[in-house]
Amino acid sequence: MAQELINIGVTADDGTGDTIRGAGIKINNNFTELYANPLATTTLGFLQNEISSTASNADIVLKPSGTGSVVFPAIRFNDNNIEGTRTNEDIKFIPNGSGQLIIDGLGFSGSVITATDSSTVNINENLIVDGDLTTTGAAVVSSTVSAPSGSTVGTLTLAGGSITDPSGEISFGNENITTTGTITAGSGSLIGNLTLADGSITDSSGDISFGDENLTTTGNLNAGATTLGSLTVSGASSFAGTTTVDNLTFNDNIIGTSSNADLNLTPGGTGVVNVSNLTIDSSINLTDNVIKVTRSNDDFVLSGNGTGSTQISKIDLNEGTIDNTVIGGTTPAAGTFSSVAITNPSVSADGVTITDNTVKANRSNDDLKFAASGSGNVVISGFSFPNTPVGGQYVKTDASKNLSLGTFSSIFIESDVSDGTATINGDSSTQTIDSFDASTFRGAKYQIQISDTTADRYKIVDAYVTHDGSAAYISTTEGASNGAGDGSSIYDSLDISADVSGGNVRLRGVVNNTNTQVIKFVRRILKV
To answer: Who has greater pLDDT, 446 or 82?
Structure first.
């Protein structure tokens, strides 16, 4: 509804303005619309750039509508998610001072990842290292290293329990072949060009070929230069010197590859590569759930590829820097986050606690303040609050979520203007219409509208009330009424009186018939 203005005429009492009743109707309509606005009944206080709760110890809850979010300059709170609003920007976690970024037991400090309980860092899933993998301790594989049928190691093919080579020969060089089973033959036995004597197999040519057949033993198999088509070992195996399998070389506790070749450890099916202590490139060590740098004063660098970023679910940093922000320093440093996702139930930050979709002050009786930067505005659920308040002004809206400051047209110091309503029963009893504090106010002027809808009778009168502290005095002036229906006589359905009771001055009335009377009034009250 648009504001209704009272027509006051051109000059005083020239008869061209609104009637008193018409002016009162406009006043009532304006106040009805004003009090219907949620800001009239809110418990929020708006002072300059501060938003506060006027109810004692009450929270301030930012609650968007429907699928809306609470939006800040570069982040938004969407249900229990904190999301970045700027394209391709990272979410930065920057602890204060010597704090760490702790993610579920893992502590991240500079280039160091540690276990906060001083245990180990455990990698339960497949691990692919594109560069060199170096361990300073022993690398122990506690489970089986498996490859699917048809896998190749160098020029060797592993399939159906056999090892074959396209050249038709598999050579073990001058190394021993050891088996926990038994290879049995009579001393001096010949198999082709092979001679079996005193636990040895020899060939006049110096080579022994098993072709595409399997070689199985439960004991030791010792050989010089040996080529195997397929090798199955059911127990422990020992290789003396350097043993080459396709592009892999085994020598003592060292596994190597051919020139410039990667070393890939690939489990079968749902299996994992389980290494209890692993050093990569003589620099990075993985032990249990701990990843650490082994070279003195080395950085620990985690780097995403291209536009990718390093994502860590939980981190605890003790020292170092993140984006030039010092971690663990004696002086706190400011951090900038494009978006922050918090999975814990709540997070506290210097006087403010964020839990789910609620932001509240956590110090006793503290205000909760929202402050924009520079000429910016605080925007909540689409409402943009003014940032240049002036004393004596109020906040108003245009019904399109645009808030601005307005100035009251009238400010009263020694008086106050208010309105109200009361329902008086037609039972011949004296009932209170309104009251005010006798110690604060000396008198009041009432403009009273009396409505008897049952009898279709309506009247408006003025009443003047004053008191001396113990007794009240009232004077009424006749206004306008619809009389007996034709305007020829006055219809008095209510007798109005005043008294002092309990320290209050009361405006009272008695109905002259059995009909219920609805009383509406405007009161101008004056201080003592």
So the answer is: 446
Locate 150 and state its tokens. 């048809």
The closest of 98, 90, 92 to 317, measured between CA atoms, is 98
Beta strands at 248-251 and 230-231: parallel, antiparallel or unpaired: unpaired
Q: How far apart are CA 495 and CA 505, in angstroms?
A: 17
- pLDDT for 424-470, tens place per residue? 999 989 999 999 999 999 999 999 999 999 988 899 999 999 999 99
Q: Which of 220-224, 253-257, 490-494 has the lowest mean pLDDT?
A: 220-224
Taking the C-alpha atoms of residue 330 and residue 322, their distance in angstroms, rounded to an integer, is 16
Residue 148 sits at φ, ψ, to 5 deg, of -70, 160
- Give, rounded to a whole angstrom, the gap between the first and last alpha carbons of the chain: 38
Look at residue 423 in the predicted model and tell me its pLDDT.
Answer: 96
Ordered by where they begin, the domains of the chain are 415-527 (2.60.40.1680)
Using CA atoms, how far apart are residues 356 and 342, in angstroms rounded to an integer? 9
Residue 77 phi, psi (nearest 5): -100, 115
- Find, among 86, 39, 67, 80, the residue nearest to 381 by Cα: 67
When pLDDT is averaged across residues 288-298 and rounded to a whole number, the result is 87
DSSP-based three-state secondary structure for 48: coil
Give the separation between CA 376 and CA 383, rounded to whole angstroms. 13
C-alpha–C-alpha distance, residues 447 and 462, integer Å: 5
Residue 40 is given by DSSP the state G
- Across 30-44, 194-208, 484-498, the highest mean pLDDT is recorded for 30-44
Tell me the one-letter amino acid at 453.
T
123: CB partners within 8 A, 6+ apart: 286, 289
Q: Which of 167, 162, 151, 374 is nearest to 268 (CA)?
A: 151
Measured at the CA of 315, the angle between CA 314 and CA 316, to 5 degrees, comes to 140
